[in-house]
Design goal:
CATH topology: TIM Barrel
Number of strands: 9
Order of helices and strands: HEHEHEHEHEEHEHEHEH
Structural class: alpha/beta
CATH class: Alpha Beta
CATH superfamily: Alanine racemase
CATH architecture: Alpha-Beta Barrel
Distance between the termini: 20 Å
Largest sheet: 9 strands, parallel
Number of helices: 9
Length: 247
Amino acid sequence: MAETSFNQKVASIKDNLRRVETRIAHAAERAGRARQDVQLVAVTKLVPLEVIQAGIEAGLRSFGENYPEQAAEKIAALQTDIDLTWHMIGHIQSRKTNTVCEYFDWVHSVDRIKIAKYLDRYALENERVMPILIEVNLSGEDSKFGWKAWDENNWLDLVPQFEKIAQMPNLEIRGLMCMPPLFDDPELTRPYYQRLGRLQGFLKEELPEISWRELSIGTSFDYEVAVEEGATMVRLGTSLFGPRPAR
């Protein structure tokens, strides 16, 4: 990327970031929350390295990736004195858990006991404790990953499974993550985020020894609704970088 083109990309991302920050702040204000309660995670799935570098220059510090091996290459290439935080937000295959533990600072997508066990094992080998979020499926869609949580009558069945993960010494549960169905109207995601808030409250009562503070919800499509409904992390790609490149 030529210097002029790079500077243009930095300026473009800065403009986008200002718009996003304003909207997050207004959404937080509408909900009676503080802007600083919401962390912006810039989703860089399929985003070229030079664009991520422009994002860093524009002020982004937290990044989310879906594919561990591609992310590992980017993270290794971005040697910088700037403190960056990397979030694994995509579905995880068992054979990729070692890479996740080696390169990422957070995992948002723990969707089954098997993956938790692998992460616990490799976190130990990497001499660390990994902050994780439990991914839940609130819609019942087969295309969505996560623990079955769409029927509130069955939430008690989740408690022993999450308790088992909480006992793994190299993992630390910090909260929940979900992906609602895709709609044309972002308001239609609100009931799913409200259900997640009820699940968060339920788990705080049933497993009070675990911190359930974090809610990783909201994308470029509906992040204002997510903030109004309690998001502490929003995962934005298109709003910052423009349309994602074709894979």
